[in-house]
Amino acid sequence: LESIQVGELAKKLNLKPGDVIGRLMKMGEMVTINKVIDAETAALVATEFGCEVRVVSLYDETIIKEEEDLAEAMVRRPPVVTIMGHVDHGKTRLLDTIRSTNVIDTEAGAITQHIGAYQVETPQGRITFLDTPGHEAFTAMRARGASVTDIVILVVAADDGVKEQTVEAITHAKEANVPIIVAVNKIDLPNANPDKVKQALVPHGLQPEDWGGTTVFCEISAKNNIGIEHLLEMVLLQAELLDLKANPTVKAVGRVVEARVDPGKGPVATVLVQKGTLREGDPFVVGVYSGRVRAMFDDFNHRLKEAGPATPVEITGLDGVPGSGDPFHVLETEKEAREFASVRQHYKQITEASQRAQPSLRTLDNWM
Ligand code: GTP
Ligand code: MG
User: Fold this and answer.
1) Where is the Tr-type G domain (predicted)?
2) Is-contact 223 234, C-beta < 8 A?
3) From ligand 1's centre to the CA of 280, what distance in Å?
């Protein structure tokens, strides 16, 4: 449902706010200048003054036309993986083990920084991992209509088995239509029971391959670095089946993984490039903010000149802190980017105002 503030409507109709308020009150609407009314009411009161209201959705105005992808420009891109699973089943440990044993950077003593995502290089290819807390990142992105994850690794501790959040993770992945690879973790423990985990997952639609199903199960120990290489091979095999491709030649399009204010750098955002190639100096709009890429960094705080599809980069040069899952688009000019951002900001304001007034009105999720 479209909506407008009473004061705004009066301005558009070239009337005094008091006149519009008076007429609305006669119509039985108790309003103030700041009250948000729906388009239907606005149209009704406008006709009273001999005006016609045409509803223009700002949604249409903030959709950014992306460049077309020519088939011959599409190239293989690394898979984007999210690790999910129950509390304490070893998600963080697994991410740490993968990262420390597969660093692209071989420089001794290189200090990693948490930017919410990282990429590793394996003999079979590169893999991008999102390392913001699995469920939150996944649901935040999904809530914004953004499915950036290609594959979910579901970690289940072999000593603890299938738990509430295990099942939740399966539900999330299924809803998003993302394939699951099961990592049965902590097999180093004496009370580990991987078969019990397999049995418990069958009713949830995850049938192991060796039991006639299609789900890949990997037995691992994140702690002792057992089975991790094989797990990554399985991830890349799955990625091959998914035939993941992107066009690196267009203006970059991506999603915000996370964002914050850095004491030294100012507002920074980790952007996962989905297509195109992002470069220093590129003007962009991200959520309701805009800017020009001043610098880009990887998770070792190394400066990058460019970032292609499935590469996560931390960028500086934003004029505010966007939200997780916000869309990111490179545009032709900074002016154009600022214009998009300001229309979105305006729209965000009126949407929030209308939600405070009438919680059932359309939500922000629709503006990108
Ligand atoms: P939350 O972030 O709290 O949901 O937990 P998590 O899933 O990230 O678990 P985390 O990686 O923090 O691991 C929880 C505990 O299990 C830690 O004490 C780990 O050291 C331990 N752990 C993780 N993997 C293994 C493993 O393969 N074997 C053993 N024995 N312990 C493990
Ligand atoms: Mg953790």
Assistant:
1) 76-245
2) no
3) 38
How much is the ipTM here? 0.99
Pocket lining: 41 vs ligand 1, CB cutoff 6 Å: no
- Supply the residue whose CA is at minimum distance from atom 15 of ligand 1: 88
Q: Which of 92, 189, 193 to mutate to test the pocket of ligand 1 (most atoms within 8 A of CB)?
A: 92
**CB–CB of 148/67 below 8 Å?**
no
Provide φ and ψ at 67, rounded to 5°: -65, 150
Residue 309: both structure tokens together = 């599809």
Helices 134-143 and 164-175, axial angle in degrees (round to 10): 30
Residues 6 or more apart whose Cβ sits within 8 Å of residue 215: 180, 181, 182, 201, 206, 207, 208, 209
DSSP state of 209: G
251 ligand 1 Cβ < 6 A:
no
Looking up tokens 């059932």, which residue turns up?
360
Tokens, residue 321: 């802190």
Does 185 contact ligand 1 (Cβ within 6 A)?
Answer: yes
Question: Is there a contact between 94 and 155 (Cβ–Cβ < 8 Å)?
Answer: yes
Q: Whole-prediction pTM value?
A: 0.82
